[in-house]
């Protein structure tokens, strides 16, 4: 999700232990968990309010569609992929070659 590896997690855990101490670390983790749950509930509630406010004609509306990157992908790239005929890819023993056959 955040592209964090094992060493980064260990480093963050040690840093948290040094900052909060062994007595306060469980309380801080509990508070952080509560805060994340509350934020998630608030976001879900806002999403439901938006969907209800738009009415029944927008039941399939997804809030992620408001993201400009996703909007462009959905409305421009999908149409090109559907319109473009698919070419047969060069095969090597039933598998794709390890290079880009269009570049050579």
Automatic annotation (TrEMBL):
Asked whether the keyword Transmembrane helix is assigned, the reply is yes
| Domain of life, per lineage | Bacteria
Q: Where is this region: Disordered?
A: 77-104
Q: Principal place where this protein is found?
A: membrane
**Topological category with respect to the lipid bilayer:** Single-pass membrane protein
What is the name of the protein in this document? Sec-independent translocase
Q: Which UniProt keywords apply?
A: Membrane, Protein transport, Translocation, Transmembrane, Transmembrane helix, Transport
Q: Secretion signal: which residues?
A: none
Localization recorded for this chain is: Membrane
Extract the InterPro entries matched here.
TatA/B/E
């Amino acid at each position: 999700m955040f592209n964090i590896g094992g060493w980064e997690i260990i480093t963050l855990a040690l840093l948290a232990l040094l900052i909060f101490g062994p007595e306060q670390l469980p309380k801080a983790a509990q508070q952080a968990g509560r805060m994340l749950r509350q934020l998630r509930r608030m976001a879900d509630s806002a999403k439901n309010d938006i969907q209800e406010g738009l009415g029944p004609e927008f039941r399939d509306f997804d809030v992620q569609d408001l993201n400009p990157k996703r909007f462009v992908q959905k409305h421009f790239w999908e149409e090109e992929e559907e319109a473009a005929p698919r070419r047969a890819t060069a095969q090597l023993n039933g598998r794709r070659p390890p290079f880009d056959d269009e570049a050579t």
